[in-house]
């Protein structure tokens, strides 16, 4: 097919050879199947802000930092340049998260390049080499539902240990891929791969990270609970976050799905000190911005 204008620069740079077909058009991007030498990959073209149905809510963009102080000031002021820089920062958030999570061993597509607002990455496929289906397009036996749910809960833990919360995890952005066999396995097997990470947030630096993680895990519980009803009573989200906050969470931490909240006394003086410190820090930041 004829290459879309946004992919033409990648062809000119030699990053892709040909465009095979459009794979999907989502709320924030369009994805194309492309050929790169002997390999088939996918190219994700991010839509401009005014063409996206997803908006950069404060929940997701809070505490996302840019290294350039001029860009940071422009983003705070909301100028045209600032909006352009915010757009670039939003797009690079998924790229950064993909590289970070792939290095941590999380099941995400392998990223290859990011050029001119286009993310070039692995095409996740099924056993026949076709694009892998989303979970919402697949029905599961109770046994498979329990297996995939356990796998994804472990992936959420692995992500959190890498400092990342997906923020929008559901059956609509998880693919059921055919994964290669591990050591000792003669053949591969079907397993979930997590996609769509532009909403990913820093677990330690975002005040909404806890709520997002609980929602992500609840989405997994509710979806797989359709096929294995006993999953509906599990409380993996609160258990995971409690262990994380306590510094006790690792990739090997055994989970039970049971959570009993503790009702410790609240240190109101400490809370008020935190509020005062935050207010002072904000006032100092505003003074620095005004001076700059």
UniProtKB/TrEMBL annotation:
Reaction it catalyzes: L-threonyl-[protein] + ATP = O-phospho-L-threonyl-[protein] + ADP + H(+); L-seryl-[protein] + ATP = O-phospho-L-seryl-[protein] + ADP + H(+)
Domain (RIO kinase): residue spans on this chain: 7-242
EC class: transferase
Domain of life: Bacteria
Pfam families, alphabetized: RIO1
GO function term, MF aspect, one: protein serine/threonine kinase activity
Gene3D superfamilies: Phosphorylase Kinase, domain 1, Transferase(Phosphotransferase) domain 1
UniProt-listed SMART domains: RIO
EC numbers, comma separated: 2.7.11.1
Keyword annotations: ATP-binding, Kinase, Magnesium, Metal-binding, Nucleotide-binding, Serine/threonine-protein kinase, Transferase
Classification via InterPro entries: Kinase-like_dom_sf, Prot_kin_PA4780, RIO-type_Ser/Thr_kinase, RIO_dom, RIO_kinase, RIO_kinase_CS
Family listed: Belongs to the protein kinase superfamily. RIO-type Ser/Thr kinase family.
Full protein name: non-specific serine/threonine protein kinase
């Amino acid at each position: 097919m004829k290459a879309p204008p946004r992919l033409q620069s990648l062809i000119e740079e030699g990053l892709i050879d040909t465009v095979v077909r459009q794979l999907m058009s989502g709320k924030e991007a369009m994805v194309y199947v492309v050929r790169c030498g002997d390999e088939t990959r996918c190219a994700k073209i991010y839509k401009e802000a005014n063409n996206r149905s997803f908006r950069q809510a404060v929940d997701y963009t809070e505490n996302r930092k840019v290294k350039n102080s001029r860009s940071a000031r422009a983003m705070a002021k909301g100028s045209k340049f600032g909006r352009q820089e915010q757009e670039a920062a939003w797009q690079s958030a998924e790229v950064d998260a993909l590289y970070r999570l792939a290095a941590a061993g999380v099941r995400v597509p392998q990223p290859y390049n990011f050029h001119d607002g286009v993310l070039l990455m692995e095409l996740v496929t099924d056993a026949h080499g076709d694009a892998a289906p989303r979970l919402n397009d697949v029905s599961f036996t109770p046994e498979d539902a329990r297996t995939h749910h356990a796998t994804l809960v472990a992936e959420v833990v692995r992500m959190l240990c890498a400092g990342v919360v997906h923020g929008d995890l559901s059956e609509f952005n998880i693919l059921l891929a055919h994964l290669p066999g591990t050591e000792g396995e003669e053949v591969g097997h079907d397993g979930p791969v997590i996609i769509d990470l532009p909403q990913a947030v820093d677990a330690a630096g975002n005040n909404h990270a806890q709520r997002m993680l609980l929602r992500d895990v609840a989405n997994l519980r509710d979806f797989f609970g359709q096929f294995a009803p006993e999953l509906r009573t599990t409380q993996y989200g609160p258990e995971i976050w409690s262990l994380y906050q306590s510094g006790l969470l690792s990739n090997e931490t055994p989970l039970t799905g049971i959570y009993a909240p503790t009702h410790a006394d609240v240190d109101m003086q400490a809370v008020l000190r935190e509020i005062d410190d935050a207010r002072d820090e904000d006032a100092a930041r505003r003074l620095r911005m005004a001076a700059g």
